[in-house]
Fold:
Amino acid sequence: MASGANVKQVQVLHELNDSLRKFSQELSDSLKSVQSEINRTLDYLAGREKHWREEVCRCQADLRRAELAYAACMAQIYDDDHKPTCHDEAAAVAEAQRQLAKAEAELANVLSWRRKVDSKITAYIGEVTRLQRAFNSTLPQASGFLSAKSGDLQDYRLVQPPSEIRVIGQRGAAYKHAKQEMMRNALDDPRVGRDIKGWIRNEMRRMQTGQATRMRMPGISRASPYVPTMDAGHRIHDVHHWSNLRFEDVKINRARYHHALRLGLSDRIR
Structure:
């Protein structure tokens, strides 16, 4: 075989490999961009949910005050000639009821949209997980093929395979940040128990006094200084946003991952 033909064919292999590497990087960047957009959407929905929950609580308090004022008005001692009408107090009760109904409707609307978005995100994560697994499984085959053909053409330059895509199934800094945000936002969540809120306030005091740089999950003690009793579990797999995390028993949380690991599903279940 002529040397010119050899060089030409080898160059084609390296150009193909460069194209694979470029495609791998572009696909990885695209997936990361979509994840950022998902987080922005969840930020917006979480903000609206928090706002309307606070509005519902405020309207409930206003209604209680209006009802107490109306009851106090009706309980006044009067004679037949001076019976109180309590029109203003009754109107205030009716207005408070309207405002509460409006706030509850807005909250229900936000929660409805959150369920719809969560459903779409779940479907997307499933599709992307399959794409990532399929792409990464073909990389060794492509690398082996290019290396073999390069050797056949007597070219011993190293054929660098494209990097694996590692967007889905990773934790790291994003997950740690989301856990800290989850605990901060838990203080305003009426669904979180007082014991957990008390733990979080104590952890925030430790940070303010310089005893710690981050909050620990609930359950750390002298008897168990490294393993908490609770951890942050995902509602939707691999979406590292504070509103997608929940307090979960640490044994259940970690056992689920190890079961998934044995089944080869660790990039799908956390």
The chain is about 65% helix and 5% strand. The helical segments are 3-74, 87-152, 173-186, 194-208, 250-262. The radius of gyration is 30 Å.
